[in-house]
Amino acid sequence: MTVRPTLRCVREDLRLPLPPVNIPLDLIDHPILVKAREQFANPGTPHERIRAIDDTVLFKVKVNRWRGAVYLDEPDAEIPAWLVCAGTREDGSANDFYTALQHQCQNARQRYNAANDKSLTTDTHSRHFLPDNDDHDRYRLQSATRFARRLNTAIAELVIGSLHDGHEHAVDLAGFRLGVQVRADHGHEAYVAIRITGSVPPNLIAVILHRVPGCAPDGWFPESSLPERELMPAEQVWSNLMDPEQAARLLARDD
What we know:
By secondary structure, the chain is of the alpha+beta class.
């Protein structure tokens, strides 16, 4: 499970400039975010709730002097976990993060009740810290970047796996299945076959082929079969040759 900071948290709590829109916020290198990603990586791990906040379930995350509050959304939400607040620990001081957070949310409750006919019955009001429309809009804008990163990782892993054993390695991606088979002789160019199963637009095929390491972009040719079998319905295969030095570098990187 990834943990993504809200825009407000990045600007006001972490005091960091917002990265370009094509950089996912959950990749920001900050101690409290690194710890949150580690702590919430396994959905089954128990977490300590911030008991002083009673209108929303928030969980503690701590590393060195940094403290944070993580909000868990619905399991099927676009982002299941958000870092909504962060600050530093000051033992015995009113500026202690969790104490200050409680006071902020109690004051927010008072302001809300003063401005609305229907008063809140909870002791705190923390909804304004939760992700808003701007947070979700930025996440959706980054969908292409996330897919490109996922594709880069998947292709590299499939190529390295097939370089080791010569068999086809495959993975399911959004709407299609991608398979890679590499057959290499020591010191010679390696034969590479890319199998795509499913309906994908031609521009996506070009994106996939362009990301295969060590292969000339203009060297791809369609095939009517794989080295070990004929094609099945909804399959297409493209082949190329991989530079042996690039293949050796990939294997060395994996060792």
